[in-house]
Design brief:
The chain is of the alpha+beta class. It folds into three domains: about 45-210, Beta-Lactamase (2-Layer Sandwich), CATH 3.30.450; about 210-265, no CATH class; about 265-319, Orthogonal Bundle (Arc Repressor Mutant, subunit A). Helices cover about 50% and strands about 15% of the residues. The protein has 13 helices and nine strands. The chain has helices at about 5-20, 25-35, 55-60, 65-80, 105-115, 125, 130-135, 185-210, 245-250, 260-265, 270-290, 295-300, 305-315, and strands at about 85-90, 95-100, 140-145, 155-165, 170-180, 215-220, 225-230, 235-240, 260. The strands form two sheets. It has a five-stranded antiparallel β-sheet with strand order 2-1-5-4-3, sandwiched between helices. Strands 6-7-8-9 form a four-stranded antiparallel β-sheet. Strand 6 and strand 7 form a beta hairpin. Residues about 270-275 have low confidence and may be disordered.
Length: about 325
């Protein structure tokens, strides 16, 4: 990068901030945060901050469930985009990549740019960038080349998608970054779509692992599209819901989820479709094995006698 490029980029960033565009542009608002809040210089040449090996190990341990849930989705995403000069990064809630996929031929380039595990890509340290700005704004976004705050990052094109955990809290970011100058808008759109689908798979796997003891119900959004996952326990109580499921059934993202009867939350028809068939058969088998003894059947099922009576009434079973 020649000497005039950082100066030109810095002047453009500062002019945009001074013009008051931050009120109308999310990008300029991020530039403003980078400059005014974090006191960063767009022309700065300092390399990205990197964690020590011990610090990176601790960061990976803190997000062990996320790492485990992301492996298959990251492999698939990398298979789709890796040959096109892209790497795939999984970052934690602090903006630190804790896992990555990349082509060996591109590794030296990505490592020199700091697109590597252990680098710190929070907006506080790197200004406007895919991972850090995605964490701040909590939405899918692409920061393309000179949209980055630092002039030294303007060769990068980064698409980032937030990942939410089983409690609908922000867990990290899935990022696809390109080192090729010929990345087209059409290809960027495909990357955004693929990254979004991969993030959904990671969230679903995280949720299923967290509620492995529960029945998982797929909900529908108002437009008939995929609405997310809900976890229902043995007493037909909803005990968990993904962020997208909460939006579909009217639970605020930041609101604590108190156990609630599935029929009340999901509606009678949905609950019957997803739960009744399987549970009715389970209750019938338990009753048969117990010779019609409700107390013995309840004990075998691991529920209270009162709960079993409710199920018998609901499923219209004689005993």
């Amino acid at each position: 990068m020649n000497g005039s490029m950082p100066r030109h980029h810095a002047a453009r960033v500062e002019a945009a901030i001074a013009s008051g565009q931050a009120a109308r542009s999310a990008l300029v608002a991020s530039w403003r945060r980078s400059s005014r809040l974090h006191r960063l210089d767009p022309g700065g040449r300092t390399s990205p901050l990197r964690l020590t090996e011990a610090e990176l190990l601790q960061a990976r341990e803190r997000v062990a469930p996320l790492l485990a849930a992301a492996q298959v989705a990251m492999d698939r995403l990398y298979q789709a985009v890796g040959a096109s000069g892209c790497c795939v990064l999984l970052a934690d809630g602090e903006g630190v990549p804790v896992d990555r996929r990349g082509t060996a031929a591109d590794d030296a380039t990505f490592q020199s740019w700091g697109l590597w595990t252990g680098a710190v890509w929070s907006e506080e340290h790197e200004g406007t960038n895919g991972i850090g700005t995605c964490l701040v704004e909590q939405r899918p976004l692409t920061i393309d080349r000179d949209q980055h705050f630092f002039a030294r990052n303007t060769l990068l094109s980064c698409t980032a998608v937030p990942i939410y955990d089983h409690e609908a809290s922000l867990a990290g970011v899935l990022d696809v970054s390109s080192c090729r100058a010929d990345r087209t808008d059409a290809f960027s759109s495909l990357i955004a779509l693929a990254a979004g689908e991969a993030a959904k798979r990671i969230e679903a796997d995280l949720f299923r692992r967290a509620f492995s003891h529960a029945r998982i119900v797929l909900t529908q959004a108002a437009d008939g599209q995929y609405g997310g996952l809900v976890a229902v326990d043995a007493d037909d109580l909803v005990i968990g819901a993904t962020r997208s499921a909460r939006a579909a059934i009217g639970i605020a993202p930041g609101q604590a989820l108190q156990p609630v009867p599935a029929a009340d939350l999901l509606g009678g028809d949905i609950t019957r479709d997803h739960l009744a068939g399987g549970q009715r058969a389970v209750v019938q088998r338990a009753l048969l094995r117990a010779g019609g003894n409700v107390s013995a059947a309840a004990k075998a099922l691991g529920v209270s006698r009162a709960t079993l009576h409710r199920k018998l009434k609901r499923f219209e079973l004689d005993h």
